[in-house]
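User: I've been trying to design a sequence by hand for this structure and keep getting stuck. Would you show me what you'd pick, starting by listing the structure so we're on the same page?

Assistant: Good idea, let's start from the same input. This is the structure you sent:
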């Protein structure tokens, strides 16, 4: 169990709590507590691990895509729509006429 003691008599309570929280987080005490809080079926464990692996794989693929294509970081921009041309102005036949 992690703990924190006063380093010197004038240490504030806030800094003591900050050190304690870091120690608890580093020891993963809360994660362990949540894992043992209730029974989890083996099928749900497999499902959770498979979803985490899928998420990890997609993240790796996205990182590789960004590393290979420097433009991949840019926002996707919609392709511009073609300009409407009127056949009566240009004299060209309409694409809809047969």
């Amino acid at each position: 169990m992690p703990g924190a003691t006063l380093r010197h008599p004038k240490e504030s309570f806030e800094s003591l709590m900050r050190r304690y929280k870091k120690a608890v987080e580093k020891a993963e005490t809360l994660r362990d507590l949540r894992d043992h809080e209730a029974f989890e079926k083996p099928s749900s464990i497999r499902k959770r691990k498979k979803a985490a692996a899928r998420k990890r794989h997609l993240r790796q693929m996205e990182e590789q895509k960004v590393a290979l294509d420097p433009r991949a970081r840019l926002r996707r921009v919609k392709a511009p729509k073609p300009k409407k041309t009127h056949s009566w102005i240009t004299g060209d036949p309409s694409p809809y006429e047969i």
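That's my pick for every position. To get oriented when you compare it with your attempt: The CA atoms of residues 19 and 65 lie 40 Å apart. The radius of gyration is 30 Å.
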